[in-house]
Amino acid sequence: MRQLLVYIFIPALAVIGIIYPFYGLCSYMVINILRPEMFFWGGQAGNILFNVTIGATILGFLKSPRNPGALLSFHEFWLLLWIWLATVVTLLLTNHPLQPRSWYYSNELMKLFIVGALTLALVASKERIYRFQHIVMTAVTLLSIWGIEQHFRGNERLEGLGGKAFGDSNGVAAFAVLYLPIALNMFLTTKNTKEKMLWLFSFGCIALLIVFTQSRGGMLGLITALLYLLLRTRKRKQLFFLICLAALVFTFSSLREADTFKRFERLTSGEKMDYSGASRIVLWKAGLLIFKDHPLIGVGLLNFASAKAPYKAALSGSTEPDLLDYSFAGYKVGHGTYFAQIMPEGGLLLTIPYLWLIIGLFTRGYKIRKSGKHLSDPHLADLLAGLQAGVVGNCVCIIFINNLFMYFLPIQILVGGQILRQLEQ
Based on CB atoms within 10 Å of each CB, which residue in 93, 107, 377, 386 is the most buried? Predict the structure, then answer.
């Protein structure tokens, strides 16, 4: 029955994408958040939704009167192209045997380039920026409600909530941290009472989602995002009060005995040390050694797990033997976007454009704030502040997980770039 209901939407999605490519892009983002495989209990049946939606959106964009050549003026367009081509070059030139799905994941970055190009082309006005973010935030809120419901039905840490895109609890937390500051800052700054209540509801749902994951990386990312937002929001006093209130609740509640705190304690608690957390430090050290030996093109996508083996001896003197054996098990990946994916697997060829994409959002934002141009549209600047805080928090979260192939961070950065262009006018 679920498959039948979803398939009914396929012709509608095709028509929407061709006639209204902007809403085709929005639909594609929504089904990336509310994953079809979650409705199909896994399996591949939902893939047709992705293919139809993005294919129709591309056709709609190509037939539109917009000038496709305008994309060439966006530096983000070239950075996304560089990121994809960097993975192709590293796979072609690496001396390490390729993993079976290396080319598949390189093609995923090609898809990111296509979706990113459509985002730059179609989310190019103030009205569309707001509409795109509102649609995405609605989907994020619906996913959060679903996650809360799953938590109370037995899926305590929300494993698998994001399907194949962000399946484990750490990925769910990182995803939620990316969007929570938007809801929070819009709640603080909007003057419309109805909107304020809707944003408060969205913020509450997303915050609960993060807490229920019990993710240490998610909590660190959340704290970082809130501190950054405290520096950027127009409502510093109100946000400071909310942060203090939350701190008091955490201090005087039973949460200190909850699993989230216990998981932090197990990082350094002797015999109870959590190898899942401690092994990440060991693996990141191995990743830095790989990067040192292969600084230009790395060892190729997905090759970290096999390439790390020769570095076990180099770390043996500074690592407890059992932890070392656990960390260097053949199947162990690095669980770190920077130190276990981008740097060791792609070298500088991949590291430079990826970091440039992130850092550029903040350097341009700083120039606009310094010039005072953000004062021309405070509401749009409020959206940017929340977006940037989410990006900062997510960038902290992905230190602890493999995030290279998730679309949400790059797409938010592109939307942030479009906001900056509106403020620059």
Answer: 386
Read off the pTM.
Answer: 0.93
Distances in Å between the Cα of 384 and the Cα atoms of 3, 193, 339 are 38, 21, 28
Q: What is the DSSP letter of 98?
A: P
367 vs 43: CA distance, rounded Å = 47
CB 147 within 8 A of CB 161: yes
C-beta separation of 360 from 303 below 8 A: no
Burial class (CB in 10 A: 0-12, 13-18, 19+), 162: buried
Q: Of 158, 154, 260, 249, which Cα lies nearest the Cα of 214?
A: 260
Residues 391/416, Cβ–Cβ less than 8 Å: yes
Sign of the torsion angle spanned by Cα atoms 139, 141, 144, 145 = negative
Per-position DSSP letters for 136-192, written without gaps between them: HHHHHHHHHHHHHHHHHTT-TT-TTTBTTTB-SHHHHHHHHHHHHHHHHHHHHH---
Residues 6+ apart with CB under 8 A from 278: 267, 323
Whole-angstrom distance, CA of residue 247 vs CA of residue 239: 12
The Cα 95–Cα 329 span in angstroms is 22
Nearest to 315 by CA among 300, 334, 328, 303: 328
In tens, the pLDDT along 337-393 reads 999 999 999 999 999 999 999 999 999 999 999 998 888 899 999 999 999 999 999
Which residues in 3-21 are b (16+ Cβ under 10 Å) and which e? eeebeebeeebbebbbebb
Say if residues 170 and 215 touch (Cβ distance below 8 Å): yes
- Token digits of residue 334: 């690095």
- CA–CA dist 341, 301 (Å, integer): 7
Q: CB neighbours (10 Å) of residue 285?
A: 18
Which pLDDT does position 263 carry in this prediction? 56
Q: Which of 189, 191, 155, 194 is nearest to 172 (CA)?
A: 155
Report whether 358 contacts 410 (CB < 8 A).
no
Q: Which residues contact 196 (CB under 8 A, 6 or more apart)?
A: 187, 190
Closest CA to 408 of 217, 175, 203, 225: 175
